[in-house]
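Notebook entry, structure prediction.
Reason for the run: the old model in the group folder had no record of what sequence produced it. Starting over properly, with the input documented here first.
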Amino acid sequence: MKEIGGYFELDQLINRPYHNNMIELNTGRNALVYLIKAKAIKKVYLPHYLCDSVSGILDSISVEHEGYSVDKELNPLFDKKLKNNEFVYIVNYYGQTSNGDILSLKERYGRIIIDNTQSFFQKPIQGIDTIYSLRKYFGLPDGAYLSTDRILKEKLEEEKSGHRMNHILGRFEGEASTYYNDFRRNDESFKTLPLKKVSRISRNILGAIDYEAVRLRRNKNFQFLNEILSASNHLNISVPEGPFAYPYYAENGIEIRKKLARKKIYIPTLWPNVIQDGNEKSIEYDYAANILPLPCDQRYGLEDMECIVREINNL
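New structure, fully documented this time:
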């Protein structure tokens, strides 16, 4: 019997998500699992410049994978002819791969999977499998979108994420450092989550976000950083819509991260596994160590961007 009365839960918010007609899942990793099951994929070619959680999830479901390199412009260096049930996994690093580029990659390789984790506002292309991981853009306990033309017939349970809200609510009222361990534990838990639908909590929040305000704020912050830092940035950067972060290359990136952290400016190392396991002379190692993804998201304004620039210049 349905419960009636008692204390209030989280209210049902408005329902205006940015992306419609997407498959809503609990994690980006599991969006890939869904796709592999739905399309009976047997092998995936992955860039070396990528988090090992992707190869780890493929290992867990016994799907073969093989690595390939990227060039200085972060384009795939891949020239193999795909066999049946083989796909190339392509990461849209920092939103630098336009939809025109994606269409060219589709024409070149045929079967591709686009990882738009770092390009939430980029619309998917019909007929091209595209994955979005939502926690990289918003304060959510779980969530991923998948755009595909193949529906898995398997009935999926709904994720439960109430216990994953502590670091999100804590940072809303306090400081990130206080809840960092909660964040890390939560992040580790995603490695073993089974394939499920997105939680009601995340779906509720996603429906109420002011996406246009988010997009404009990210654009403005990114453009400010680019105007000042582009002259010293070793990367040739285009300005995407609603950018994930501003990728600033510095030859002593590891040391700069440490010094910025002392100033309470936290710059992540996106894929530390590449540094731990990679060849120090490879471009993947160089980029993982030295590209600083400077925050330019909706939480911050131009004063914050000026602070980031000032501290980088001081270093």
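Summary: The chain is about 35% helix and 15% strand.
The old model has been moved to the deprecated folder.
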